[in-house]
């Protein structure tokens, strides 16, 4: 069993391009069913200065390939495609 606090310390790596996406900042839970539905990572900051909003990268649980000792491997489209969009992005099957 893995604790949520342990997951937050692991690097998340995209297996499609080998890039490190960052560390998990939050986890989306389905409380009714007691399941993790997505991992939330920090995206790029939009704008300049200290008052800019940082978009989030939401990775559905189904896109997680393997959770290892030091790393979480995911399979998502390239980060530049995702971060190029204006709103927070939730990956789903229609985007592939």
TrEMBL record:
Residues 2-78 form the PRC-barrel domain. Coiled coil: none annotated. This is Sporulation protein, YlmC/YmxH family. Pfam families: PRC. It comes from the Bacteria. Signal peptide: none annotated. NCBIfam families: spore_YlmC_YmxH.
């Amino acid at each position: 069993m893995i604790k949520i606090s342990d997951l937050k310390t692991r690097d998340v790596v995209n297996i499609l391009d080998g890039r490190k996406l960052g560390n998990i900042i939050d986890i989306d839970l389905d409380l009714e069913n007691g399941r993790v539905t997505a991992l939330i990572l920090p995206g790029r900051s939009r704008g300049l200065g200290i008052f800019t909003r940082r978009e989030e990268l939401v990775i559905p649980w189904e896109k997680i390939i393997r959770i290892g000792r030091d790393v979480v491997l995911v399979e998502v489209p390239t980060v530049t495609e995702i971060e190029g969009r204006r709103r927070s992005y939730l990956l789903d099957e229609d985007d592939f």
